[in-house]
């Protein structure tokens, strides 16, 4: 009877562990997908940042050129 009780306890514990391992596997898959999505978003944002930096540099150069032309006009050349 004691052996039968131990077997039942072991089986119950194994079932509990099996459920927990399944939950953990599900969580790992969810986190992996979330990680992939975040990496894709980061890549997208990095591309946008690079484009904005380039545009900012173009605008800065344009403004500097305008200031240069205004100075030339102001000096009477």
Give an overview of the whole structure:
By secondary structure, the protein is mainly alpha-helical. 96% of the residues lie in helices and 0% in strands. The chain is rod-shaped and about 110 Å long. The N and C termini lie far apart (111 Å). It is built from one helix and no strands. The longest helix is centred in the middle third of the chain and has 74 residues, at 2-75.
Mean pLDDT: 94
Kindly provide the radius of gyration, computed on alpha-carbon positions and rounded to a whole number of angstroms: 33 Å
Q: How widely separated are the two ends? A: 111 Å
Give the overall silhouette: rod-shaped
- Low-pLDDT segments: none
The computed structural class is mainly alpha
Give the count of helical stretches. 1
What order do the helices and strands follow? H
The profile of the biggest β sheet is: none
In short:
The protein is mainly α and 77 residues long. It has one helix and no strands. The model has no long low-confidence stretch (mean pLDDT 94).
Secondary structure layout plus pairing:
Elements: H1 2-75
Throw out a few tags for this protein.
single chain, 77 residues, mainly alpha
